[in-house]
Amino acid sequence: MTPTEPRTDSRADRFVRELAELRIPDPAATRSALWLRLGGTLMAAGLLLALSAYFVTHNTQNPLDQRDGLALGLGGIAATVVGAALFLRHSLTGFLRFWMARQSHDLAVLADRLCERDLNHDLTGTDTAPR
Known about the structure:
mainly alpha
């Protein structure tokens, strides 16, 4: 298609076609979704582990059991932090990947508009300067 021919497809159709040409993986791919679910599960399991450790340490007078509960609680907190990091990383990756593709598409549309304006620009010098 030459720049002077009118476009027959809609803007959304062009965006989908250009996304396919860029070969950007789908954010809902199985591997990314697996890591996202693993992060959420690890967050929930870590919170449950820390909560159960609280009850273990407060329902006994034996110092050995209390120390085991403290170690269990620290493990739960660590699991929660790791799960939150995994969840945040993979949820933001999908969003930012789409955002970057959208920005690329919008810049291409802007470049097309500027090129069309330059092609239609009167070169005799009688029109005013663009603002």
